[in-house]
Automatic annotation (TrEMBL):
Record localization: Golgi apparatus membrane
Signal peptide: 1-16
Lineage: Eukaryota, Metazoa, Ecdysozoa, Arthropoda, Crustacea
Organism: Artemia franciscana (Brine shrimp)
Name listed for the protein in its UniProt record: Galactosylceramide sulfotransferase-like
GO molecular function: galactosylceramide sulfotransferase activity
Family indicated by similarity: Belongs to the galactose-3-O-sulfotransferase family.
């Protein structure tokens, strides 16, 4: 009798388990299992075979740098926040900026109905003020950002923001021809007061008037190195993700990504060596930032270990492949717009491909609900 009862309970448990989880993905390299919940919305771990030696970090300040694959990284942070019910620093209106050209400050989010919940994640475009972001997050946050080779970055800015129109209908080649012309005053102007020369330093909050002051530039970049726990490199995306994984003590299933907001190769302008050198000279301040922090990044990779890095990149690739194939029902497609549209059709995978504004809307709704719930609990306890 007891044996029959035990068997019935076991069968009931197995049936319930199959109902709750639609499918699972086995990362043989990392020896971890993953699944989608029954409604297919989010990925969650269902088993862990390795003992953790650290706790996942959940207080994160990410500076979303312009045209540095930052939308791709932002999606990672927003997914993690959404899945784990973390609060993101967001404005009330439907906008993806917090400040700029003015620096970030708490007054930009003090009018939101969720500001009393406290904040865990910063992941929007802003003009960085380290002290203000740290104050907004509270606790002991991890600070990260990403940078890119300055010539490539400016070419991307020129295309994405249609600076052709802003700079008196000059294409990038014509713009470069006019760089050394003293009469061409507009070259230092910023599109909508945000976009232009030395974009990375501008996003970091460095004063435009100090672009040519070497001592101030050096001190500022030294400060960036000290304040940010990790400055990732766009050209070394896989290595950046591996270092980020170990810094945050996350799992690779949290860090799988699609390339979002990227252009086709045929849309990119090819510059000659002389043109690139001329542009790099004009972007001297950003180039100093990049070279200094690229060297710091390379040292981190060396300290991590080249062999270990290659092993970790294989794990990331394995988890990514399995999740993507699972999301696409076994269809193999390149990481392009077709893949993104296919992902958006799948309930369980759509967060990977969700556009920024739609994702921010969902997070706002979730935070609003949490704020209302807390308010009701507060009223009920009076």
């Amino acid at each position: 009798m007891k044996r029959n009862t035990f068997l019935m309970l076991l069968i009931t448990w197995v049936v319930g388990f199959v109902t709750v989880f639609q499918w699972r993905i086995q990362d043989r390299a990392g020896n971890e299992e993953f699944s989608l919940t029954d409604d297919g919305r989010i990925l969650v771990p269902i088993a862990a075979f390795t003992e953790k030696t650290c706790e996942p970090k959940q207080k994160i300040g990410f500076l979303k740098m312009h045209k540095c694959a930052s939308t791709t990284l932002q999606n990672i942070f927003l997914r993690y926040a959404h899945i784990n019910d973390l609060n993101v620093i967001l404005p009330l209106r439907r906008w993806n900026y917090l400040g700029s050209p003015e620096l970030f400050s708490l007054k930009l989010v003090n009018d939101t109905p969720w500001h009393h919940l406290g904040y865990d994640i910063m992941a929007l475009h802003t003009r960085w003020d380290h002290s203000a972001v740290k104050q907004a997050l509270g606790g002991d946050p991890i600070f990260v950002t990403i940078i890119r080779e300055p010539v490539e970055l400016f070419e991307s800015l020129y295309s994405y923001y249609n600076l052709y129109s802003f700079f008196e209908k000059r294409n990038l080649y014509e713009f470069l021809d006019k760089l050394e012309d003293e009469k061409f005053k507009r070259k230092n102007d910023r599109f909508v007061d945000k976009i232009g020369r030395n974009q990375m330093l501008f996003d970091l909050g460095f004063p435009v008037k100090d672009f040519g002051k070497e001592n101030k530039l050096k001190d500022f970049v030294d400060g960036v190195e000290k304040k940010f726990d990790l400055v990732m490199i766009k050209e070394k995306m896989e290595e950046s993700i591996v270092l980020l994984k170990h810094l945050l003590c996350w799992e690779y299933k949290d860090l799988v990504y699609l390339k979002l907001n990227s252009r086709a190769q045929n849309e990119k302008k090819k510059l000659s060596v002389n043109q690139a050198d001329k542009l790099r000279k004009w972007l001297k301040a950003d180039n100093y930032l990049y070279m200094k922090l690229r060297a710091v990044f390379d040292r981190k990779v060396e300290q991590f270990g080249y062999k270990k890095m290659e092993e970790e990149k294989k794990k990331l690739s394995s988890v990514t492949k399995q999740i993507m194939e699972g999301c696409l029902s076994g269809k193999k497609k390149p990481a392009d717009e077709n893949l993104i549209q296919e992902m958006r059709k799948s309930a369980g995978c759509r967060l990977f491909a969700l556009d920024e504004y739609s994702f921010l809307d969902e997070i706002k709704i979730a935070q609003w609900k949490r704020a209302d719930k807390k308010e009701l609990q507060s009223v009920g306890s009076r």
